[in-house]
Amino acid sequence: MVGLIGAMSVEVEALMAQLEDRQEKQIGMDVFVSGKLFGQEAVLAVCGPGKVNAALCAQSMILHYQPEWILNLGVAGAGDQTVSIGDMVVATAAVQHDMDTSPIGDPVGLVSKINLVEIPCDEALRDKLVRAAKAVDGMNVHEGIIATGDQFIHSGEVRSRINGLFHAKAVEMEGGAVAHACYVHGVPCGVLRSISDQADGHSDMDYPTFTRLAASHSQQVVENLLRGE
Ligand code: ADE
Predict the structure, then answer these.
(1) Tell me: the pLDDT tens digits for 104-137?
(2) From the centroid of its chain, how far is CA 84?
(3) Whole domain around residue 62: which residue ranges?
(4) How many CB atoms lie within 10 A of CB 53?
(5) pTM of this prediction?
(6) Is 197 designated active site?
(7) CA of 195 to the centre of ligand 1 (A)
(8) Which of 16, 115, 206, 218 meets the CB 3.0–4.6 Å disulfide criterion with 197?
């Protein structure tokens, strides 16, 4: 069984619609929907925005379904000017950009307890995601750091700070938390994001316009991934 987590229903609804032999289970406030997706056993959930929602959902999924890997998919803001709306970013690793104990001597982004700034993503899954993304006609695919925090980024200054610290290709609100939960439990993890906005102050205008399109792109990549396996 494989696990798929999106923050908002628009990020997984096209996949949910394809799920056969559906079974639902509620754990806390998360609803897990399992079944057959493009021939593979899968479990899907909408975790809600933010790191704590994402970590709670990922941990419940791991403990109740024992997935062989978990993919966090959805939309994100661009991490720098080389990334455009509609592009796809596959994470090499995820960081939590708002984790900051630097006043007591740590590097910015160091996640206590696991003692990492860059939380690794599974290389084999990443390679498959890149192949699946490149199979979408006209898709521009980037590989790099995805930066997660409990803020919607809509300022060029904030985006530059995050990019300067972590060289992030995309900014979002869940990937680093799903990767954290997976790391703790030894479950391979992937983060796949389609760019919905530039995160530079024009987000308010771009976001509703491009979210639906970007969300459908990342679900198309998951379809390619699952059909190819
Ligand atoms: N998800 C989509 N766009 C985002 C942004 N600009 N900041 C954080 N999360 C996002």
Answers:
(1) 999 999 999 999 999 999 999 999 999 999 999 9
(2) 17
(3) 2-227
(4) 20
(5) 0.97
(6) yes
(7) 9
(8) 206
